[in-house]
Amino acid sequence: MPEGHSIHRLARQLTDVFGGQRVRVSSPQGRFAAGAELLDGHVLTRAEAIGKQLLVSFDHDGTGTTTNDDADRHRVLRIHLGLYGAFSFGGDASFAGASSIGAPRRMGETEHGTADAGEDVEYTGPPAPVGAVRVRLVSDHGWADLRGPTACEVITAADVDALREAAGPDPLREDSADGEDSANDDGATFARLLRRRGVACGQLLMDQAVVAGIGNVYRAELLFRAGIDPYRPGKKITEQEAADLWADTVFLMRDGVRLGRIVTTQRDPEHAVAVEDLTLDVDAADIPAEASRFVYKHTGEPCPRCGTTIATAVMAGRNLYWCPGCQH
Predict the structure, then answer these.
(1) Given 9, 46, 52, 78, which residue is catalytic?
(2) Annotated catalytic, 288?
(3) Residue 8 sits in the same domain as residue 157
(4) pLDDT digits (tens), the chain, 328 positions
(5) CA–CA separation, 113 vs 102, rounded Å?
(6) Residues 122 and 57 in one domain
(7) Within this chain, do residues 218 and 305 fall inside the same structural domain, yes or no?
(8) Predicted model pTM
(9) Which entry of 24, 106, 318, 324 is annotated as an active-site residue?
(10) Which 8-state DSSP code applies to residue 303?
(11) Which of 2, 104, 126, 171 is catalytic?
């Protein structure tokens, strides 16, 4: 399923192309018809991500503002893309550059630019829905179709507060990425949640109540970069290791938002980790796909650090990749 960086990019994109506009909401497939009726014709104020949860807020008084004290006026579309969910976009020049974003099983872990959006294309309205479109958003300038999500529902501001409370710290919060004081608080919270349990750290990194947004690719690559055995219990992770993991997570996932893809073989000059001699000292945008990962989906190949054969196993329901030789 798409990891946190993709959901944050998707939230930014939805805000950019629909924010402040009155939007038509429908469910061509029919499965979200009741929810679409609640949102149809109202102003989409913003979209945001909490880890892998996408939240799209609608204002029901026509002012373009939202408050948390009126559940009837402020409604939120909660989406979890899961393994198969994906958005596609199209429209006029204001939609130029909008990418189709979704689950790796459908999109191949890459984004696809919108072919029918741009200055040279006259926008005459959305095309007929193709496939099982769960939700369609339409403005005067373009459209977005959602297919195949695991979750799609209308919730209230109180529900959003509960989601925030249940989620672990999100490394892609703006203040985390900017290194402000609250980012230090998030790092301390992450360290406390990681180090208090005897569960394998590779499983804990996939627990959205420990850290929001990390998925299978980041799990494998972060632990390799840090030289940590994914089977080591969280309570055996040192404070310094936890701090380094948090800093590296913020660095890599922030670049994932910037690039629209996961690249873990680049060097972070501010937070050196155990792969400093292996990383590429170039902008991550210039690193080709075949050189963008150390261990993920490299089963049977020699470890680039010690030469041991890279192994795979199932952990927390997903395939884990690691080096048994130098991750300890």
Answers:
(1) 52
(2) no
(3) yes
(4) 788 998 999 999 999 999 999 999 999 999 999 999 999 999 999 999 999 999 999 996 655 454 445 555 689 999 999 988 999 999 988 887 677 777 655 444 556 665 444 455 678 889 999 999 999 999 999 999 999 999 999 999 999 999 999 999 999 987 544 444 555 699 999 999 999 999 999 999 999 999 999 999 999 999 999 999 999 999 999 999 999 999 999 999 999 998 888 999 998 878 778 887 888 888 888 999 899 999 999 999 999 999 999 999 999 889 999 999 999 9
(5) 12
(6) yes
(7) yes
(8) 0.86
(9) 318
(10) P
(11) 2
Active site residue 2: yes
CATH of the domain at 30: 3.20.190.10
Active site residue 52: yes
| Closest residue by Cα to residue 135 from 119, 154, 121 | 154
Is 3 known to be catalytic?
A: yes
CB within 8 Å of 257: residues ≥ 6 apart: 5, 8, 9, 12, 172
* Nearest CA-CA partner of 48 in 73, 83, 78: 78
Q: Which of 134, 149, 164 is the last residue of a domain?
A: 164
Residue 328 located in a structural domain: no
Say if residue 229 is in the same domain as residue 129. no
Q: Are 209 and 307 within 8 A, CB to CB?
A: no
